[in-house]
Structures are given as structure tokens and as C-alpha cells.
Amino acid sequence: MFGKVRQRKSDKADTGYWDVVIPDAQAELARSMDAERLRDRIGHKTATILDMAAGDNTLAEIGEYLGFGGQYAQRHAGKEVRVAVLR
Description:
mainly alpha, 4 helices
């Protein structure tokens, strides 16, 4: 009536070895706290400029964030990014 019981071809899943690495919660918390301490130390403006520069924002977008427009925004943003990196 029910037929033959199907068997797994591989018992790999039963060996206790997994490909997934579970992150250590304490290490993640320490990393987060270090990042927050660094952001406090360099300041909100500098941290935001570095985040934008590391992301996919253009110099024009960074300049607009700083309150400038046009070509001046790009020139000023380039200077601000260099200053932020040197901090």
C-alpha cells in the first residue's frame, strides 16, 4: 500500500559538520562598540562623509550633503573626503 521507504543517498547532513559559520555574538558586540567609539571620536560629520565615500555616493552627492551645489560641491567634497581619510 505505501511502497518502499525512501532512504537518503548521503548521510553528510548527519555528520554534525555544517558549512555555515555562526558568528560569535561577543565578537560582534565588541566590533559594534569599537565602531561606535570610533564614530564618536571622529565626529558625526566625518563618519557620515566616510560612509558616503565608502558607499556608492558621488562627490556631487557628498557635496550636496555638505550644503554646496554644482561644480563647487564636487571640489569641496573631494577636499572633505581627503581630510576625513587623514583623520
